[in-house]
Specification:
single chain; 343 residues; alpha/beta; Rossmann fold; nine-stranded mixed β-sheet; three-stranded mixed β-sheet; 11 helices; globular
């Protein structure tokens, strides 16, 4: 029961992942926390989450008056602001850093904004815990496949976030800093599949970058399961990687279109985009171990590595071009996630 009587802080808690994290934690399946704090700078999204939690359609500000006495609490703050992070972290047992600028083209056009959120934000968490000697038990950095062999600003900044969290273990031995890294989340904000759904419903055309494009595909629940598994079992400095299916985007679109007469247009690679994503690089293979449903990358800093024997479980990089799903498997994945379009 990893959350029983724990005080949990989720930065970026109003995002797609953050909201799903909140709903899954509040089921109590892994223990009921004493407090669950949603930390973000988006007042409107926080208010909407309050309404959903209270099962209300509308409410004025009286809805927040007794919030401090309830399990779910909302905190307006910015992960870029050290003082804000310091205040929010007081007496917290577990922090999950889901705050991010994550859209690849946006980060290319506003690279320093990505640096401030994805790098400085992560560093503020590490700094606050170290400087204030907070007794945080576990800090989780939520990362992305784009952090592996990065070619875009989003991936570069997330890669640095991983290293900042790894190094945090040296600054604060009382805290276990760990990371999770995964691929595209089906139907999350900014992902391609909601765009395909909209384009198909409008009769097309459906736009694809290039025919060779592949991506790892996973549901929000799979992403949450990965985070929970890391919190339960990860050692200091480790990065948890899911064993997750991948697919050609053209096959995904074919399944979604079905028998409809809809044109497909190829638009070319977007700024900072890869044809195939990578979850584990060639270099990381040598310190990657197999833990059932997950691969685990041991920390790059040798003094943080556990005594667990590393037996090579990968002999090449782990890429979305490997082991592609067939169309029947894609159809089943989309069906399970309610992403097939009814006629």
């Amino acid at each position: 029961m990893i959350f029983k009587d724990k005080k949990i802080l989720i930065t970026g808690g109003t995002g797609s992942l953050g909201q799903k994290l909140v709903s899954r934690i509040l089921t109590g399946d892994f223990g009921t926390p004493s407090k669950l704090i949603v930390f973000s700078r988006d007042e409107a999204k926080q208010h909407q989450m309050r309404l959903e939690w209270k099962h209300k359609f509308a409410a004025t500000d009286e809805i927040i008056y007794h919030e401090s006495n309830e399990v779910l609490e909302f905190y307006i703050g910015d992960v870029r602001n050290l003082q804000s992070v310091q205040t929010a972290l007081k007496d917290v047992d577990i922090v999950i850093n889901a705050a991010a600028l994550k859209q690849v083209p946006t980060c290319e056009y506003f690279p320093f904004e990505a640096v401030q959120t994805n790098i400085h934000g992560a560093n503020n968490i590490v700094t606050a815990i170290a400087n204030d000697n907070f007794m945080v038990d576990t800090a989780v950095g939520v990362s992305t496949d784009k952090a592996c062999k990065p070619v875009n600003v989003m991936g570069m900044t997330k890669s640095i976030q991983e290293r900042i969290f790894t190094e945090g273990n040296l600054k604060s031995p009382q805290t276990r800093f760990i990371c999770t890294r995964y691929g595209n989340v089906l139907a999350s904000r900014g992902s391609a599949i909601p765009l395909f759904v909209d384009q198909i419903k409008k009769g097309g055309p459906v736009t694809i970058t290039v025919p060779e494009m592949t991506r790892f595909l996973m549901s929000l629940d799979m992403a949450i399961d990965l985070i929970f598994a890391a919190i339960k079992s990860a050692k200091r400095g480790e990065t948890y990687i899911p064993k997750v299916p991948s697919a050609k985007i053209t096959d995904v679109v074919d399944v979604m279109i079905g028998d409809r007469k809809i044109e497909i247009q190829y638009t070319g690679i977007r700024p900072g985009e890869k044809t195939h994503e990578v979850l584990i690089s060639e270099e990381e293979c040598y310190r990657t171990i197999d833990r059932g449903d997950y691969f685990v990358i041991q920390p790059i800093l040798p003094e943080l590595r556990s005594s667990e024997e590393i037996t090579t479980c990968l002999n090449k990089e782990y890429t979305s071009a490997d082991d592609l799903m067939n169309k029947d498997e894609i159809r089943e994945l989309l069906r399970k996630n309610n992403l097939l379009i009814d006629d």
